[in-house]
Amino acid sequence: MPSPEAPRSVLVTGASTFLGGYLVARLAANPEIETVLAVDSRVPRKDLLRRMGRAEFLRLDIRRPSIAKAIASYNVDTVVHAATSIMEAAPHSAAIKEFNLIGSMQVCAACQRSPSVKRVVLRSTAMVYGASSKDPSHFAEGTAARREPKVGYGRDLLDVEGYVRGLARRRQDIDITIVRPQAILGPRINTRMGSYLSLPIVPTVIGMEPRLQFLHEEDALAAMEHAVLANRPGTYNVSGDGVVTLTQAIRRLGHIQMPVPKGLLAPITGVFQDLRSAKLRSSQTDFLTYGRVLDTTRMRTEFGFVPRYTTDQTLEDFIRRGSSSPVIGADTWRGLEHRVVSAAHRLVEV
User: Who has greater pLDDT, 260 or 148?
Assistant: First the structure.
C-alpha cells in the first residue's frame, strides 16, 4: 500500500492538555508538515509551549466562530479534535458538557464549510461503551453498549462521535478517523484513573473483580500521531495487550484495598483524594465495578498500529516512574501470598 500524502496544514484543538499539547510537539517536529496550529482557550504551560517548537499557538475558544476563521486563514487540511482530552483530569460538569458539545458542533460546522479540510481525527474514548454486568468479554468497535452511558464523558463523546459521523455524511470527501483509547496511564499524564490508583487506601466494590486494560501515555500520543499521518478512516479501539484485575493493580502498587458498597464508592474515594487530584465521579463507578476490555483486532489489521507497551508494562512503568509510594512493599505481599498458599496446602493434606 503506498504511503498516504502527508498533511500540509494541521490544526489541533486542546493544546493545553497533555495529549493535545504533546501531539502538537510531535507534529511540529515532522518536516513534511508545513504548518502546525495549536488551539486552546487556555495558554499551555511554558515547558509545553517550548516543546511545541515552530508550531503557532492560537488562543481561541472552539465554541466561537473564530475556529472557522482560523481554519480558513491557514487553509487547514487536517483537523485533530483533541480538546476532549480535558476528560483525563477535569471532573465532568455542566460547563464541561457545554464545552464538549457546543465546541464539537462548532468544529464540525467549520470543517463542513471549509473547502480545504480533507481529514478529521477525533480523540474519543472507550467510555462510550459504558460498563455493566451484561457486557461481552471484549468490546469490538461495532458492539453496541448494553447500557449506554447516560451522563458524564461517555455520554458526551457518544454525541460528539455522532456529530463527526454527520459531518462525514454531509462531506463525503472528508476522511474521518475516530480513536477510542482505553484508560490512559503514565508517569507524566494526570488522569482520574491514575489518581484513583495512587490512593494509599483504594476503595473498591465489595464482591466485584473488574478486568482492566491500560494504554501508556506514549502509545496514546503515538496512536493519535499515526491517525494524522497514516490517514486510515474508521473507528478504532486502542489499548495495550493483556488484562489485569483491579485487585492485582492495587497490590502491585503496594496499596491497601478497602471493599465498600457500590453506592459508597465515589463518596468514600472523595474522602481519601487530595483536593488537587482528579476526582472520581459516580459515572465511573460502573467501570470500577464491572471493568471493560477492548477488542483491538482492527487497531492492528486496519489501523496499522501496535502499542509499544502492554497493559502489564504500562502499569509497571506507572509504578516505577510515577509519584505514588507503596504502603505495603512487594516483599510483604509475596510473603503473605506464600503463607496463604502454604496454609491452603496444609488444609488439603488434612
Answer: 260
Nearest Cα to Cα of residue 81 among 22, 25, 15? 15
DSSP β-ladder status, 119-123 and 78-81: parallel
Structural domain boundaries in the chain: 9-331
Question: Would you state the pLDDT for residue 276?
Answer: 38
Which residue in this structure is represented by grid cell 486552546? 40
- pLDDT at res. 139: 96
Task: Provide the grid cell at 63.
Answer: 465554541
Compute the CA torsion angle 150, 185, 14, 301 (nearest 10 deg): -80
Q: HSE on the CB side for 12, CA within 13 Å? A: 33
- The answer to whether residues 20 and 217 touch, using CB atoms and an 8 Å cutoff, is no
User: What's the pLDDT band for 2 if we cut at 50, 70, 90?
Assistant: very low
CA dihedral 307, 309, 310, 311 (to 10 degrees): -110
Structure confidence at residue 350 as a pLDDT band (50, 70, 90)? low
In CATH terms, is domain 9-331 a member of 3.40.50.720?
yes
What is 228-269 written as a DSSP string? Answer: HHH---EEEEE--SS-EEHHHHHHHHT-EEEEE-GGGHHHHH
The DSSP bridge partners found for residue 236 are: 179
CA dist., res. 35 & res. 313, Å (int): 35
Residue 335 C-alpha cell reads as 510473603
